[in-house]
Request: fold
Amino acid sequence: MDLDKLFRKNLKTFSAYEPGEQPQGDGWIKLNTNENAYPPIPEVLNDIKNAVDSKIRKYPDPTAFEVRKLIVSVLLREQDTLTDRNTVFVANGCDEVLDTVFKVFVDPGDEVVFFYPSYGMYDVLASLYGAKVNEIKLNEDFSLPEPAFTAKGKVMFINSPNNPNGKSFGNAAILKICSNFPGIVVVDETYADFSTQSSLSLLKKAKNLIVARTFSKSFSLASLRFGYALANKDIINEMNKVKLPYNSNYLAQVAAISCIKNRERLQQQNKKIIEQRQLITEELNKYPGISVLPSDANFILIKFDDKAITLKFLWDLREKKKILVRHFSKAGLYNYLRVSIGLEEENRKFLDAFREIASQYL
Ligand SMILES: Cc1ncc(COP(=O)(O)O)c(C=O)c1O
Reply:
């Protein structure tokens, strides 16, 4: 039997998402995949441990009722946004929110709009679902270009703050896009908890807006997979219809509830990350031949004047210092390294390593 003939045709040209390196063994400083530097706090870990009991024999609540209720009534209480639990969709990470948007809105051949550079999954999912892609290049300074405001299509993805540069786009621009775009606008706010900006308040004004969020980054739960979306009830209803029945597992729901209850402690930790982001940015900006882009996220993007030197830093950090940072071998990004903000101790080691390497190359 020729299996090749059985695979879906568009898989012939499909390229899978390339995740950042997850190294084997100990001793690495991992600043390459934007995980939260801090482990979950003991209270959250205890709640997870206590939940590992005979209940895992049973299926979880397929509607994640309790978490949805707490998201609107507690977590987002201070935000000027939707308040009905039926405006919340719960998923196995923000990635599943994105996938579900495709399932609900994108027929093969429909046009999907997103920006470059940005998070790679928009393109991966567009290819998987056979969508036509309109990839709009961001301006040199990573701001939105004019075509963002005139584009047509079924779904547009905006990542704010944007990965890999870390800057938010601002609500005035996003609202203008929502008014001009004839389809659905998804604002991926994976990193918004490290920023002072959010599009949540636009949900009351824009019926075509979906805001996608996650507990992976600001709540240190990347491995447990818990994401959610807020949008108009009709959209959420349709998303719930197509999701797999038990897409959000019991332990993830328990952990999410615990994070919401302990949110103030977690927000304090995130403040430290924001302070460290500022400190690292200031330190690195003292070097000649590089500049750090302004960031609202838990990572920074460093621009090097020289591509060869960029790669030397990447290599020496990894091979000599066991520090992983992210380089994208993609158009326009060869001269950049993206660095996640680590624990204070890790950041100090990173800055020490950077100084040593810089004394050779900068
Ligand atoms: C912009 C963006 N969106 C979504 C995700 C995926 O998030 P999750 O872990 O919630 O699936 C990531 C992960 O790095 C990301 O950078």
In short: The longest helix spans residues 263-284. The radius of gyration is 21 Å. Residues 34, 93-95, 119, 159, 163, 188, 190, 214, 216, 222, 227 surround pyridoxal-5'-phosphate (CB under 6 Å).
